[in-house]
Specification:
This protein is of the alpha/beta class. The protein has ten helices and eight strands. The chain has a single domain, classed as Rossmann fold, CATH 3.40.50. The two termini are about 20 Å apart.
Length: about 220
Amino acid sequence: MSEPYVITIDGASGSGKGSLALRIARHLGFHLLDSGAIYRLAALQALRQKVDLNNEVAVVEVLQDFDIHFEEGEELSIPYLDDEDVSSQIRLESTGDAASIIAQYPAVRARLLERQQQCLRAPGLVADGRDMGTVVFPNAHIKFFLYASPEIRAQRRHKQLISMGISANIAQLQAEISDRDERDRNRSESPLLPAPDALVVDSSLLDLDQVTQLMISHIDEVTT
């Protein structure tokens, strides 16, 4: 039997990869992996347990008993931590910053790697994150890397947070996004970089429908 088909979508926070991954997974009838949400859930677990985020051993310890699952939502997958819908909590910038901090730790990445790879099931998987095409699924059939300017991503994040009833400041969001980009690009463990064989897509001036169509067209070209 052939291996399940894998499509990876990597990119920085706010590049639109989560919404695109869900759309493409639905289009193809594939399963979905939102790896960024897994790291945010891990960060939320650490924050709730009030551990020192700068203590790698302590962070890994609270992930020993880590009960999470996802359900399909309208625009994004719905994350559950200990059977509680924590969609709003994991989208907070404070959670995103915490996720960026703990994602630097090799032991955290090792603990979450197997959980991510276990999501691979027939007929296929669309996986979005920061190292899906380079580390988690290096032999993926199709790889994308999404780029968008920090300014555009801050505007998108602001709109998303406001729609969820969460107050936000665009200037602060842009500063936090830039800081997170710097950490993600320069960490020693699985830095945010496009895979050599990834198609790089600049979504700065494209809406969600346009990027979706571009990516589906590329998938169709590769698979026909």
